[in-house]
Every structure is written in C-alpha cells, then in structure tokens.
Amino acid sequence: MSSKTKPRIGVFKFASCDGCQLSLLDAEDHLLAVADAIEIAYFPEASRTMSKGPYDIALVEGSITTHHDAHRIQEIRRQSKKLVTIGACATSGGIQALRNWRDVDEFIRFVYASPKFISTLKLSTPIAEHVPVDFELRGCPINQYQLVELIAATVAGRRPNIPTYSVCMECKSRETVCVAIARRIACLGPVTQAGCGAICPAFDRGCFGCYGPMDSANTASISEQFRVLGQTDPQIARAFRGFNAWAWQFRKASEECDHT
Amino acid sequence: MADTIRVRIVADQIGQLIRSLAHRDYAIFGPAVKDGAIVYDRIEEIGDLPRGLTDHQEAGRYSLVPRQDQALFGYVLGPQSWKKYFHPARVKLFDARNDDGVFQILPNTASPARPVALLGVRACELAAIAMQDRVLQNGPYADRIYAARRAGAFLVAVQCTQSAPTCFCHSMGTGPAVAAGTADITLTEMDVASDHWFLAEAGTDRGAEVLSELSFAPATDTQCRAADEAVALARTGQRRHLDTAGLRDLLIENFEHPRWDEVARRCLVCANCTMVCPTCFCTDIEDASDVSGTHAERWRRWDSCFTTSFSYIHGGSVRTSPKARYRQWITHKLATWIDQFGTPGCVGCGRCITWCPAGIDITEEAQALRGTVNHGNTES
Predict the structure, then answer these.
(1) Of the candidates B266, B275, B293, which has its C-beta nearest A156's C-beta?
(2) Distance between CA atoms of A45 and B105, rounded to whole angstroms?
(3) Do B35 and A176 count as a contact with CB atoms less than 8 A apart?
(4) A3 falls within a domain
(5) Quick one: closest CA in B to A1, which residue?
(6) How many domains does chain B have?
C-alpha cells in the first residue's frame, strides 16, 4: 500500500487519564501491522511528529470540561472525515462527570490555592454533545482488541464487530459462573455493554459498568435486584455513578435512587 | 440390543467406569466444582466428581451446600449444559487470505476432536441432546461441526432421585426417569448414607461392553424396586409445573396480552436464559479482517434472541422492545418449536429460572397467560 492511500489518523486528548491512548500503544502484537497500514499523523503522546489535518480518522479521548476544549473539538471535527471517541470519558463524560451533580465553584475553592487561575465549565460532557460522532468505542479503558478491530474495519470499509449486548454474554461464553446468582454479589453485568471480556466476574467481583449501558439496559430491574441483595438506595446510586455516571441510562437510574 | 439387565455396582466402581472409558480413548467430561457451582469439566478420576455436595436452587438463586453423605451425583443441575461440547460457544469456520488481490479460503485444519464420553447426564439433558440432534443434524441441513463433535459420543446417564424447586421435567415428559435406550449406560445412585451403590443398566451394546468390565452383582428385585421408587420420588417432589395442554395455541392466541408488559418490566434482556438453555441453538456469524487486509477469519458464536442485533435486518432491528424479545423467546420455545420440530423446545430443566438475574419463571409466565384468558378445557 503506498503512503498516499494510507489512512491518516490523528489521536486527540481532552479531559482524561490517557489510559485509552495507552491501550493503542499497548497493542504491541498489532502495532507493527497498524503502523504499516496507516499513517499516524498526529499522536503527541507517542510521537513528536504532529502533522496538520485533514485526517481520515480522528480518535478522540476525554470529555469536554473547558471553553477552550469546546472550541477545539469543533476544529477537530472540521478536519476529520470520521470522528471516533475512545473510552468512557469521551463517550459519556467519564468519572469527572461526578461533578455534574455538585457545585464546581465550591470544588475549586476547596481544592486550589489560587482559584482565580481555574477556568472550567460546570459540566463534564461527552464529545457527542458537541459534535457529530461516527463511532463511540466504550470502556474504561477501551479494549485494545476492539480498538484494532475498529481501525481494521474502518480501513477496510466494513462494520466493526463491536457488540452492544450485555456482559452476561461474555461471562457465559468464557464459562464464568454467574456471581449475582451463585454468590449473591451485586453485578451490573446485565445492564452493561460487553467488550471487556467479562473480567471482574471471573475474579468473583460484580461488574462495575466500565463499558457503560448496553443497548437496552433495564436499569430499573437491576436496581430492584440490588435491593433484593440488601443494597440501600445510596449504594445503588453509587454503583451507577462510576466511569459512565453521565450516560443517560445510568444517570437516570442513579437519580432515582439519590434522595439527597 | 439384547435384554437389558440391571446390575448392582458399589460406588467405587465409578472409578473403574472412568478408567474403562479412558481406555477406549474417550475425552471424559462430567460434573466438577468451580466458582461455587457444579459445572461440566474434564474428569480423570473419581476424585474429580463433586462428592458430598448438593445444590439449592430457586428463581434467581443458586448455592452449593454440603450433604450429610458421600453422594457423587447428589446435586440436581448446574448452570452449564452439555451443548457446549457439541455446539461450542465460539468456533472458527475458516481463515482466508488475500494473495495480491486473489481471495482464498484456506482449508480448515482443526483436527477432529476425540469422541467424548459424558458422565452424569440427567434425563432432561438427554432429551435436550435429542432435541439439538433433531435441529442440528437430523434435518435436511445438517451442521457438520455439530455432527462431528456429536459422533460416537458415549452417554452415561444418572437418574435424578431428587428435584430442585426449579425442576419441571415431569410436566415436559422428559424425566426424571431415563427412557430405555436413550443412554449407553444409565445409573441410579442409591443408599448414599450407608453402603452406597449404583443400579446400572446398559442401553446399548457398547454400554453393555463397558459395564461388563466392572465388578458387579445382578440386582435383586428389591434393589430394582428401591431405585425405581427413588426416581419416582424425584418426580412426585416436583413443585413447579407447566401445563402443556393446548400450550401452542395459548401462546399463538396471546400475541397481545398485558402480561408481556409486566414481564418486560423485569426482563433485563441480558440473554442469560438462552445461554444456559440446553436446547437454544442460535448463532451469529462474525467476519474479522486484520489491519493490513491480508488475513480474514470467519467465526460462529452463540447468539440470543434477546440481543438487539439478533433481529437486525436492513434498516434496523425488528424486535427493538424487551417485550417483543421475551415474547419471541417463550413463543418459540413453547409454541412455534412444535410447528418446526414436533415438540416444545423446553425440557423442563429449570436453568432459565435459576440463572435469570431477575428470577423470571417460564412456568409462571405461561400460567399467567392462561389465568386471564378463556382457553377452552384448560380453564380451571
């Protein structure tokens, strides 16, 4: 493949921990093949080369939390044929969206010695609230195999194999015994999208919901099951307020249990 | 098969049974403890079996608890069914290569697996295997993957002498007694607290051959009667029932019914019921290609009518609401399956009840449809 036909990829960071970008770097087995098939035009975390747009694919990590970023994402969208968000921050606002339920100015006063230098928005919001997004890759962090699959599919012009069903399907596929039923552990698996490979239940933990709500999440029913397991409403609200707290299904479910 | 004879073997002879099967080069699978449940796994010796354990099951609940005795098959059913051996959750169909623009499908070099021997198959599970046989290999379009794995499988059934509260095999006519000739060997575990023996019966010639390698004594009439009574007790102890009279028409005539909204409020559409169901057979096909575009793979994996993508056709999914998906599942399982294959697709094992995180009960849902409709002679 000549360099002219190689898709140009840009990787952009907003409010995030960089873990999803690291997943791209961690994809060692595939990285050489990826590097050969695409041109990494802009990836400050990995390379000093920072080529200007336009880009064929923009991979966007992080949520929008400042005025500056709200403008920057508009420019990236203009420069990109396909815009793909990677990770829970970019897709649902991330863990930093917990501030959306509180007074940000108060946080600033408590945390920073000189609050006057801080300029921030009241809400942490997903990229899709600001610009049209072509694909949202879920997870905190994203799964490197899903990322490679997404890039391979985009390059080949086919639909990526990124299922939107529940984590339960992955537990059953890897033969993990259901922790909710056999161990009475509160587990968000039935309402959470697959993609991680159902890691936590394989280690006797309930699903934390890192991949956000599955396509038909019945959060009211899972809240009811949590109550049967002895969870209080504040506990249930906290369970939904993880990395995908601001995803509307989890947000609604947590607010139904939040009596503060 | 000549006359069936029933013999008495002491419990330790199960070890010899495992050795005899291993000697015949079967890959032996049976019950074993893992993650707080009884699953099916490789069995190499009698010590691998879940001695002295039983399961407590209710809708949405399962726990493993010690028994007062040394029973080897003293549980009822775990979360997995044997379908994972014949109809695996994921299987690669082929690799393909792009040789300078020429698309080439490579021969599938996966070596055929050794024939399996399944140890501890319950009557309902034998019925489920027979159902999958009918669907996947006995029809006009046999699935070669299933047929290759199913070929030569040696089945050792163990009859139930207790039922879980979730069992309703008697309603479905599949158990708890094992029908003659449906397994190679049928065992009934007896007197677990005292002299611990098994009543053994060959259902096929090769079953008789394996049985002849064990130390046995002819079973007395009293012993045979005791075993039959123990199995009968499992039947009479069943608490759950599914009224099968007019079942097909009940579902078909209640396409619209307020109960569907009610169950949809609870249903998580997580697909657990279909994953644990021993007869559910639906799959999806996934194509994958690498970034360089030189290598591609086609995989088949279990799918479920509870996923949105399952009913995806051009333009979108047909069954977008959880209500439509639950209705599809139970209507296929209990009604349209009859049109397709002659029997309902449910064997009454109760796994979908136990392993539903919301505790939805197929027998209760079917009954609820009856309760509010005027349905001929089934009206009580």
Answers:
(1) B293
(2) 39
(3) yes
(4) no
(5) B292
(6) 2
Q: A250: closest CA among A195, A193, A201?
A: A193
Residues of B in contact with A178 (CB under 8 A): 62, 79, 272, 355, 357
For residue B289, list chain A residues with Cβ-Cβ distance below 8 A.
152-153, 156, 158
Q: Which of A133, A156, A179 is the last residue of a domain?
A: A156
- Using the 3D structure, point to which of A130, A156, A182 is the last residue of a domain: A156
The dihedrals phi and psi of B91, each to the nearest 5 degrees, come to -145, 135
pTM (whole model) above 0.90: yes
Q: Choosing among B291, B301, B303, which should be mutated to test the A contact, i.e. which has the most A CBs within 10 A? A: B291
Q: Largest alpha-carbon pair distance within chain A?
A: 61
Residues above pLDDT 70, as percent of chain B: 96
Do residue A199 and residue A72 come from a single domain?
no
- The phi and psi torsions of B89 (rounded to 5 degrees) equal -60, -35
**Pair A137, A192 in one domain:** no
B231 and B272 together in one domain: no
SS3 of B96-146: the string is EEEECCEEEECCCCCCCCCCEEEEEECHHHHHHHHHHHHHHCCCCCCCHHH
Instruction: Tell me whether residues B291 and A176 touch, CB distance under 8 A.
Output: no
What share of chain A has pLDDT > 70, as a percent? 97
Provide φ and ψ at B194, rounded to 5°. -120, -100
Q: Do A155 and B291 touch (CB under 8 A)?
A: yes
Residues B257 and B206 in one domain: no
Are the beta carbons of A177 and B36 separated by less than 8 Å?
Answer: yes
Q: Do A176 and B90 touch (CB under 8 A)?
A: no
Residue B317 · residue B264 · CB < 8 Å: no
- Indicate the Cα dihedral angle A139, A140, A144, A148, nearest 10°: 40
Q: Does residue A43 sit in the same domain as residue A143?
A: yes
For residue B265, is it within any domain? yes
- Regarding whether B224 and B318 lie in a shared domain, the answer is no
Residue type, B294: T
pLDDT tens per residue across span B123-132: 999 999 999 9
Instruction: Provide the residue range defining the domain that includes B301.
Output: 247-378
Chain B hits for A34, CB-CB cut-off 8 Å, are 291
* Mean pLDDT of the region A85-99: 97
- Determine the angle formed by the axes of helices B322-331 and B258-266, rounding to 10 degrees: 110
- Residue-level pLDDT at B374: 42
B13 CB within 8 Å of a chain A CB? no
Can the peptide bond before residue B176 be classed as cis, meaning omega within 30 degrees of 0?
yes
Within 13 Å of residue A131, how many CA atoms lie on the same side as its CB?
A: 27
Total of domains in chain A:
2
Q: Could you tell me if A212 and A138 are in contact, meaning their C-beta atoms sit under 8 angstroms apart?
A: yes
- pLDDT digit string (tens) for A200-250? 999 999 999 999 999 999 999 999 999 999 999 999 999 999 999 999 999
Distance separating alpha carbons of residues A127 and A112, to the nearest angstrom:
27
User: Is the CB of residue B64 less than 8 Å away from at least one CB of chain A?
Assistant: yes
User: Do A53 and A100 reside in the same domain of the chain?
Assistant: yes
3-state SS, residue A57: strand
